[in-house]
Amino acid sequence: MENGLLNLKAMDSEQLREHGHKMVDFIADYYKNIENFPVLSQVEPGYLRKLLPDSAPVQPESLESVLEDVQTKILPGVTHWQSPDYFAYFPSNSSVAGFLGEMLSGGINMVGFSWITSPAATELEMIVLDWLANLLKLPSDFLSKGPGGGAIQGTASEALLVVLLAARDKVLREVGKDALGRLVVYGSDQTHSSLLKACQIAGIHPENCRLLRTDTYNEYALSPESLTDAISHDVASGLIPLFLCATIGTTSSTAVDPLLALGKITKRYGIWFHVDAAYAGSACICPEYRHHLNGVEEADSFNMNCHKWFLTNFDCSALWIKDRSALIQALSTTPEFLKNKASQEGTVVDYKDWQIPLGRRFRSLKLWMVLRLYGVENLQSYIRNHINLAKKFEDLVAQDPRFEIVATRTFSLVCFRLLPANKNEEYVNKVNRELLDAVNSSGKIFISHTVLSGKYVLRFVVGAPLTEERHVIGAWKLFQEAASTFIEN
């Protein structure tokens, strides 16, 4: 009967208060000590099965014993995305405000698929996405008072899929369902892999997904000329151009596709134009980076991940669309048990018709709390600080003749590599693979890689909430020491 936990009830306010305080203390201590963990988990596959019993306990255990197991068995298998020494992939921001919003959402724990299931959830989502759209200076067509509006998806991959389905069904209503095999989707070879996955799910033939080649001469951006050529060729072959995904801040190098020029091409051919700004959209709340969105007025849909670089705990992917009816026609189902007066009268938004699942969490709460508890000026400062730290790292790399910068830094990602005396490309790639493994296996930092024009490139992205200049300088020293070891050997 340890701590009276044999009598733990399903939901009791006093037990929640007692255990909730312990959990908050545990999480606060985790953040206090986060720098003491190896950033990249160092465990071997299958490690956890050896540490945990084969079956669930018949009798209840105490929270203390569970948290002890978290400390000794779970945390060693965690890669610490919130560590100040995390420089891999793109960030996944936590914050006090985001956490509090997540906690409140979990506490209320409602399932807001339609307006009537919790009016505040739907209406707050519409309001908070209008706030964010205005911060980004998105066209008024994307605001909830017009024919479009915003909806929070789980991830950018989901956002891309739902707008591709909307585009597909819109065209098939015009040309007939039998034309599915003739639909063509376009992106660049730098477009996120979620485009290919969305095509697989939407029934677009893999050979009809055109990933157009990019090059160093225009910083790996999608060339309007190559898009026009590909479309002309497809039209001449009797195919139907359907959808273009352009990117603001590609994963490999944060390339920015030329929205205005691409948008004019899509208008000419009646192609749905989607803009994926999952990572870099956050930077565009700063006036000095907003120009990267010039041409977004040509887009049919626009997406950014608040859970990447906007201090909003995962998951929270903001999608705006100009024509909500296209989305609703593709995704709406209304079985008898979901019918209600407000929905039947058409006076409300039912977000179940804007997404793949029926159920949805109260995610707007945390975005609302982030915007209110930090304010726009602090959010802008937060973004600028990371970009300045990335610039600091870039300057350090540029001062060391053993290294080279491989792509222009646009936001907070630096693409670089070690360039040994033997400049055989295969050998250089091998050395950089080994350099990546060496720094990651040290446990001191975590970075990732990409390949650009056949070059194996190290990606160093600044974006964790706790990262300071000392972490960036410490990371650079680690690279320098590892490089010296490699060159000596």
TrEMBL record:
One of its GO terms (molecular function) is pyridoxal phosphate binding. It comes from the Eukaryota. One of its GO terms (biological process) is amino acid metabolic process. Keywords: Decarboxylase, Lyase, Pyridoxal phosphate, Transferase. The keyword Lyase applies. Pfam families: Pyridoxal_deC. The keyword Lyase applies. The modification N6-(pyridoxal phosphate)lysine is found at residue 308. Its cofactor is pyridoxal 5'-phosphate. InterPro entries: Aromatic_deC, PyrdxlP-dep_de-COase, PyrdxlP-dep_Trfase, PyrdxlP-dep_Trfase_major, PyrdxlP-dep_Trfase_small, Pyridoxal-P_BS. GO terms for cellular component: cytoplasm. Belongs to the group II decarboxylase family. This is Pyridoxal phosphate (PLP)-dependent transferases superfamily protein.
